[in-house]
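Our working data are protein records whose layout never changes between entries. An example says more than a description, so a record of this kind follows.
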Amino acid sequence: MALRSDWSQRTCSMARGLDILGDPWSVLVLREVFFGNGRFDAMKQRLGAADSVLTKRLAGLVAAGLLARRPYDDG
């Protein structure tokens, strides 16, 4: 049994948004990015999230077009 409803196919923009952002981890990941924390290891440390959780949420946010993946430029 699913833990929550799938609203990804609804015509309502609020329902589709809730399907993406209805997960607390996704909202926390966006918070980290908005505050300038764009590195995986730094996000993991601040959030206390497991690698698998953080990877899945980041991939979902990229797939939804809310985030873009960029190579890190240290120079």
Summary: DSSP finds four helices and no strands in the chain. Residues 14-63 form one domain. The radius of gyration is 14 Å. The first helix runs from residue 13 to 21.
